[in-house]
Write a structure and sequence with these properties.
Layout lengths: L3 H4 L6 E3 L5 E10 L6 E7 L7 E5 L4 E3 L2 E3 L4 H5 L12 H10 L11
Parallel strand pairs: 1-6
Antiparallel strand pairs: 1-2, 2-3, 3-4, 5-6
Length: 110
């Protein structure tokens, strides 16, 4: 898991796939509504007119100033189309949890 302190040093960092190949660059970081911890990052990539895709922060690791995720480029490219507008709805977040097959879904809304 990437800490808030590490995020401050990663502006425009390269995002690498599971094989160490560049997928794109770090776009935005989305925080968990409940905890305020980093939960999702967007990857800016050249495909599809600069489309931004979401990747879970819980699976990402910092390696020599780059961020590596345990997914193939094709997996990341195939992520659900979700508008990166500053907030994820619960439905959008649930779609991402299902897509990335994450066991821990979002906490219920208060």
């Amino acid at each position: 898991m990437i800490s808030n302190e590490e995020l401050n040093t990663l502006y425009d960092a390269e995002i690498l796939d599971q094989d160490g190949e560049k997928i794109g660059t770090l776009g935005e970081v989305y925080l968990d509504n409940r905890t305020g911890d980093p939960a999702w990052l967007t990857v800016r990539a050249g495909w599809f007119a600069g489309r931004k895709v979401f990747v879970p922060m819980s699976t990402a690791e910092v390696r020599e100033g780059q961020i590596q995720v345990p997914y193939s480029t094709d997996k990341v490219k195939g992520a659900p189309d979700i508008l990166a507008d500053g907030h994820l709805s619960e439905d959008d977040e649930q779609d991402l949890y299902i897509y990335y097959r994450m066991d821990d879904g979002p906490a219920p809304s208060a």
